Amino acid sequence: MRVTALNPEPAILLAALSDIPGHTGLDRIWKALPQARLVGGCVRDLLCGREVHDLDLASPFPPEDAQKRLEQAGAKVIPTGLEHGTITAVIDHHPYEITTLRRDVSTDGRHAVVAWTDDWKEDAQRRDFTINAMSLDQDGQLYDYFGGLDDLRAGHVRFVGQAAQRIEEDALRCLRFFRFFARYGQGEPDKGACQAIARLKDMMTRLSVERVAMELLKILSGPQLLRTLELMEETGSLAVLLPHHAPLSALKRLLACGDPSEPLHRLAVLYPPGGADGQGLAEIGAYLKLSNESRAVLAALAKPKPELAATLDDDGLRRVLFQQDRSILLLWSWLVQARELGRPDAGWDELRQRLEALEQPVFPLAGRDLIVLGVKPGPEMGQWLKKVQHWWLEQGCRPDAEACRDWLTGQLSPR
């Protein structure tokens, strides 16, 4: 069941909650911590019918008391962040993060010193956006102190309280504003938020590169990506976070094609090979300290484009598939379509379907096959292997081992 109308009725919310994997562990948590509530992203996504990944809760019990109560109820408890009031209960292999209600004592612009409280509104007041400040109890009752439900309905991403104050408490909230706008935003962005971000954008230079990269990749996956990046450009944030990026017009062409929400090929459009000031994909991957796997993808996308065209037949498609990983070719197909057309196209869609359906070509010969035919190991063998592989590629990677041996025998016989 999905809550498509943002209906806060308890029965509807509880029915939707029952569809979520891991929801059964909530009964044990609520038995141990009856005043606990679901909080943050899971409440937000439950309300608007989006997939819920993690069930996070808050509780008025101090973390040590909450841990004791949960252990007495048979849950495995991991003290993941006691200094911040956070523990993780593991029930039937599902983790549930439970945090004691908090208030900020002091902050350095990124991290806060907190104290425990039993005041739900005080805890909600320290959250970033109104759509993230709602909570839900075990009876399905929604608690919304700052108009988060109305904002969610309107697609309005709005800070709790004064935007500038919230950013000064934690500069990461600038990036989170853009991330949530990319995912939930509709219409005009919050004026006060944009003004505060434009004024305080340099605070983002204090953030760790790893955290910036994490947020940027989520932004690049958002459905409202183009408007979000334009907004980041207008506030000066994009130049702070992604220096030397290409004009957004190239990304607009990619999005117009209806591309999947894959952040790496969207990043590749912003940093094409030979980008401005030498800032290409390899450099931006290193700058953002992306994972080795992500950097490998960017390195593949930084190479000269493969011979892809919507009119390519299956023989040609097998040739490029032999030379390049299928997942990379699929990303390339969107990049080439964006450059050549910049719009949806049935031919490119069909090409991707055929690419998905083709078996991975495997060259059927190895050195031992040539030894049987009388070719001695060494440079000559390598040359003959290249020749027969070249012939095999010309045939669309279709000849089997026997056909390759027959062709090679014919080439060797005049010697």
Automatic annotation (TrEMBL):
Pfam family example for this protein? PolyA_pol
Superkingdom, natural source: Bacteria
Q: Which cofactor does it need?
A: Mg(2+)
- Residues of the Poly A polymerase head domain: 36-158
Keywords of the record, alphabetical order, are: Magnesium, Metal-binding, Nucleotide-binding, Nucleotidyltransferase, RNA-binding, Transferase, tRNA processing
Ranges for domain tRNA nucleotidyltransferase/poly(A) polymerase RNA and SrmB- binding come to 193-246
* Gene3D superfamilies registered for this protein in UniProt: Beta Polymerase, domain 2 (3.30.460.10), cca-adding enzyme, domain 2 (1.10.3090.10)
What PANTHER family does this protein's entry cite? CCA TRNA NUCLEOTIDYLTRANSFERASE 1, MITOCHONDRIAL
Family per record: Belongs to the tRNA nucleotidyltransferase/poly(A) polymerase family.
Return the protein name.
CCA tRNA nucleotidyltransferase
Q: Which organism is it from?
A: Bombella pluederhausensis
